[in-house]
Amino acid sequence: MTDEAGPWLVVGLGNPGREYAGNRHNVGFMVADLLAQRVGAKFGRHRRAVAEVAEGRLGFGGPRLVLVKPLTYMNLSGGPVAALSQFYKVVPGQVVAVHDELDIGYGQLRVKVGGGEGGHNGLRSMTKSLGTKDYVRVRFGIGRPPGRQDPADFVLSDFSAVERKELEFLVDRAADVVESVMTRGVEPTQNLYHGA
């Protein structure tokens, strides 16, 4: 299931800067921040990539993980991810992208390996830079925009007041999903969380 020697590269996709912090598009950063808290790691600028990185281990003797927040803006996320996957010698099957997903309802979580990018610029950039689609995606449902709102505007807007009531719980659950992928594998995680 896992290569015991190599760490997992967990990439929270988002845009750097305070003005984007609460955006739907930044839910990957939110999950990465929570995972860093859980493993007692602090983010710092990496010397080999335009990214913030936090390193830790899941529990005593658990898998090593490298948490990544690219600082290049969403559509250029792949460059730092590819650089870090080479630096840490991480195989594509142990790269996990955590990202917002328009095609599933708010708060639903889905896990898959490979597949299309569904118009997501962060995933498109990662696929191009890694040279493969065969990395793990943890998809955090944000649903479709209301009415005729442009999806590009929707993802760059903050979660609504109603959504924010549940957001902390859902980010916590998404972090659980990422941990499950690392400790149980993709298929058992799908079985565990897709029905919920």
TrEMBL record:
Annotated site (Discriminates between blocked and unblocked aminoacyl-tRNA): N15
Coiled coil spans: none
Compartment(s): Cytoplasm
UniProt-recorded name of the protein: Peptidyl-tRNA hydrolase
Origin species: Micromonospora avicenniae
UniProt-listed Gene3D superfamilies: Peptidyl-tRNA hydrolase (3.40.50.1470)
Primary localization class, coarse: cytoplasm
Primary enzyme class: hydrolase
A single BP term in Gene Ontology: protein quality control for misfolded or incompletely synthesized proteins
GO molecular function, one term: peptidyl-tRNA hydrolase activity
CDD domains in alphabetical order: PTH
